[in-house]
Design a protein that fits this description.
flat, mainly alpha, two-stranded antiparallel sheet, 4 strands, single chain
């Protein structure tokens, strides 16, 4: 159980990291909806069918929100306390959440954001072209299928890397170029 003040403090700590996030100015839900609508009107006759245009803009839109999931596996303090059986009373470890040093994994929920349906449509349109990408890896099983059965000349080693703030740390221009 997380203390009532620890959760918002943990989320604020994430959002206050200026290397990763910057404060958005004038986030007006109505303005965003209008921009999407204007984009659709401008391009409807050249690129979109009536059904596609309706799909993109006719749903309940709202701004995205952020929440955090505790990454309990990252706390060395918690691991130590769990190993010390004297710290656990009746199956409960009573300790202040902040003191455990448990970070949050930020989750940005955009299930109703103004660009969600436009992104979904782009994904549907682009999916057939995936087969043209020679080194596309969809998931772990796909990666394992693509590994050669036998490698002669050296002993391969698989390495897993945990990148802190992976997606927010990708430069926008570099991501677009890739």
């Amino acid at each position: 159980i997380i203390n009532k003040t620890d959760y918002p403090d943990g989320i604020r700590q994430i959002l206050n990291d200026e290397r990763v996030y910057k404060r958005a100015q004038d986030m007006d839900e109505h303005k965003l909806k209008t921009k999407v609508s204007n984009f659709i009107k401008k391009h409807k006759k050249d690129f979109l069918t009536v059904n596609e245009a309706n799909y993109i803009q006719n749903y309940e839109m709202s701004l995205s929100y952020i929440y955090g999931l505790p990454k309990i596996h990252k706390s060395s303090v918690l691991k130590t306390l769990i190993q010390d059986k004297n710290k656990i009373k009746d199956g409960v470890l009573e300790h202040q959440f902040k003191e455990l040093g448990i970070p949050f994994r930020p989750i940005l929920s955009g299930t109703k954001c103004p660009l969600k349906r436009l992104c979904e449509l782009a994904q549907i349109i682009l999916r057939p072209f995936e087969k043209e990408i020679p080194h596309l890896i969809k998931d772990t099983p796909d990666f394992l299928r693509k590994l050669p059965d036998k490698v002669v000349g050296y002993q391969p080693t698989l390495i897993a890397i945990d990148v802190v703030q992976l997606y927010p740390s990708i430069d926008n221009e570099l991501g677009i170029e890739a």
